[in-house]
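FAQ: What does the model actually see?

It sees only this:
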Amino acid sequence: MKVCFIDWFAYGLFNPKSKIVFGGAQIQLFLLAKELAKSKKFSVSFLTDNQSSFRLDKFEKIMVYQFVRSPNGYFNFFFSLLIQLRRINADVYFQRAASAETGLIAIICRILGKKFIFMVAHEQDVNGEYVAKNGWRGKLFLLGLKLADKIICQTKKQQSYLTEQYRNKSAVVASGFPLKPLTGDRVRKEGVLWVARAEDWKQPEMFIRLAQKFPQEKFTMICPPAENNPDYFKIIKAEAEQIPNLKFISWVPFDRIGVYFRKAKIFVSTSLSEGFPNTFIQAWQNRVPLISYKVNPDKIIDKHRLGFCANGDEGQMEKLLKKVLKNNQLRRQLAVNSYNYVRQYHDLKKNIVNIIANIL
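And it is asked to produce this:
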C-alpha cells in the first residue's frame, strides 16, 4: 500500500541543515512515516516544501517530494497540487492540523479516488475556533473534514468537539514516540526547561518571568522563531538574554533535543492551549515532571500524577514550581510516574497498530 504524508514544514526534520522551523504536527507525521517505512507492507512518501526548489530525495526508505508553494493564489496552487498528488499516486494521504489546504487535499483525493485521513493537531482544529476566525479558509477546512475518510484525534476531548456527522468517522489514537529503554548512566538533573516556537499563545514571557523569580536555579529556553511572526522572536530573545540565570537557544536539531530533556529537573509549559504536545512526551520519557500553566489533555497530569497543572493561574504556577524544586522525593516519584505513563500509552511501536487499522 502506498501512503503519503503532506506537510509544508516537515523538511527540517529530514534535513536539519535547512533550518526550517517545525512543530509538533510535523514531528508526529515524520515519526509515523519513519515507523511505517519499516514495514514491507507499505511504500511511504512525504510531500513537503524545502522553500527553494522542486526535487525528489530519498531519506532512508522514504521518498521525499519537495513542492515549492506558488505565491500566485489558491487557484494555481490547487492545480499544481493536483498534478503533484497524481504524480505521487498514493493510496492514502495524511495531513495534520487545520488549514485551507485540508479542503484542497480532500477535494483532490476525491477526484483521484484516493483515501484522505485528517489528523487533529490542536483543539482549535475541532472546537470551532479555527473555522470562526478564518473566513473562507475556515469553510474550506470544514469541507476537508466533511470529505475526509477518517479523522484521527489525539484525545477524547478533541473527539467530543466533533459533531455527530464527523464523530462517526473519527478515532482517538494517542501521539506516539520511539521510546528507548533507560540506560544505567547517571545523568545529573539540573535546571528548568522550556521548549516551543516563539508564538504569542505559547506565552514565552511567562517563562522569562519565572526565571527572574528563581535566580538560584538554571533555566533553559529553546525557542526557534515562528514563520508568521519573526519580530516577536526578536523581542523574546532580547528579553531572555537580559536574565543572568536563563540560557536562550534559538535552534536545536530534532535528533539533539533529547539531550536537554535528559538533563532537566522540570519541564514547564506556558501555553494557553495545545493539542497533545510532543514536548510533554519527550519530558516524561526522560523522567522529567511537568508544570503546566493551563494545558492538561484529558486531565492526564492529575490522573496519572505526572506533575501539576496551574489551571491558568500564574501565581499558582510559581508556587507549584517552588514545591517541586524543593521536594526531591516528590520530584523523584513524579519522574517515575511519568516514565511509566509514557511506556504504557505513547509507545510508537504499539500506537502504529491503531494507525494502520485506520488506514486499511
